[in-house]
Design a protein that fits this description.
Helix 3 links the parallel strand 1 and strand 2. The protein is an alpha/beta fold. The chain is 39% helix and 17% strand. The protein is elongated and about 60 Å long. The protein has two domains: 159 residues, Response regulator (Rossmann fold), CATH 3.40.50; 146 residues, Rossmann fold, CATH 3.40.50. The protein contains 13 helices and twelve strands. The strands form two sheets. The chain has a seven-stranded mixed β-sheet, with helices on both faces. A five-stranded parallel β-sheet has the order 2-1-3-4-5, sandwiched between helices. The N terminus is likely disordered.
């Protein structure tokens, strides 16, 4: 269905630049996971919309958008990819490696832009030279997971055992699990690595954390976790478990801490790739950009509920403190 409502209103401004001059109407296909009806989904996809608007692309005037969403059900990705490719868009935006892979398996000619692309995904030859019909930006950076664990150790006194929850369906996060294992050895932490492939697996994972007496949780990035962010926050509160999030979208639900690059910023920057491709650039020649800015967000209200006192040294480094 077409982007509408609040996102459409963001686009209502006069055309500028080349897109206005050519008079051509472009077709943008989106193969998403988080629907626009979700507040965080609207915020993140709205960042792409904002970026496109700044470049002169206005839905209903020089842009038609077809937005298909799995609504957190990855098994729907192949069928939706086929449906989207059949629509013949000029460019496809896929939010992650799983969706991008399904799109590429369906078409090797339509350009695909991925705002959270992993070099280890197998979708590109390298960050500098993607080499195919896929390009974009990455949220992954060396040492990021280690920094998240380091911050957790600062926040939680006498921390020695940390649970790591990830979705193995999202294969690109395997790199983060490996990073966590290496960082844990350096920091003298024991890891309890747990999987949640479906929303129904999350509660049993928290039960396992409590049973093994984990002192904190590192939640790795995944669209399903964002959709389940309120439930995760509730389970963490009931388990009295401090959580370090790898996606800022969890902070609106009461997450304790976030450290990493902004996903919304990556989606906004992805508009530049769409623009370049529509103007004739080939994805194979567009290097994948790495994150340059990392943010630390601390929720003092959640910390108080957990009985934690955030060290001044951590607060001094925070880009945002929620009170």
């Amino acid at each position: 269905m077409f982007l509408a409502g609040a996102l459409a209103s963001l686009l209502a401004r006069p055309l500028t630049g080349q897109s206005q001059q050519t008079g051509k109407v472009y077709r943008l296909g989106i193969l998403g996971n988080i629907p626009l009806t979700d507040s965080e989904g609207a915020r993140v996809w709205g960042a792409l919309t904002q970026g496109l608007r700044e470049l002169g692309y206005v839905e209903g005037q020089n842009l038609i958008v077809e937005h298909l969403s799995t609504k957190g059900r990855p098994e729907r990705v192949p069928a939706l990819a086929t449906e989207l490719v059949r629509w013949k868009p000029d460019v496809i935006v896929a939010p992650n490696n799983l969706n991008a892979r399904a799109a590429r398996e369906t078409t090797q000619t339509i350009p695909i832009v991925v705002p959270t692309l992993a070099e280890s995904s197998g979708l590109i030859a390298s960050l500098a030279h993607p080499g195919g019909n896929v390009t974009g930006l990455t949220l992954l950076a060396p040492e990021m997971t280690g920094k998240q664990l380091e911050l957790l150790k600062e926040i939680v006194p006498r921390l020695n055992r940390v649970a790591v929850l990830w979705n193995p369906v999202n294969r690109s996060t395997q790199t983060l699990v490996d990073q966590a294992r290496g960082a844990a050895r350096t920091l003298g932490l024991q890891l309890q690595v747990l999987e949640a492939r479906r929303a129904e697996d999350i509660e049993s994972a928290f039960t396992a954390m409590s049973r093994e007496r984990a002192g904190a949780l590192l939640l790795l990035p995944d669209a399903m976790f964002i959709l389940q962010r309120v439930r995760i926050a509730d389970l963490a509160a009931r388990a009295h478990l401090p959580v370090m999030h790898a996606q800022s979208e969890h902070m609106s639900a009461g997450g304790l801490a976030f450290y990493g690059p902004s996903m919304a910023d990556n989606f906004r920057r992805a508009a530049t790739y769409v623009d370049k491709i529509l103007k004739g650039a080939k994805p194979a020649d567009l290097p994948v950009e790495q994150p340059t800015k990392f943010e630390l967000v601390i929720n003092l209200k959640t910390a108080k509920a957990l009985g934690l006192t955030i060290p001044p040294s951590v607060l001094a480094r925070a880009d945002q403190v929620i009170e």
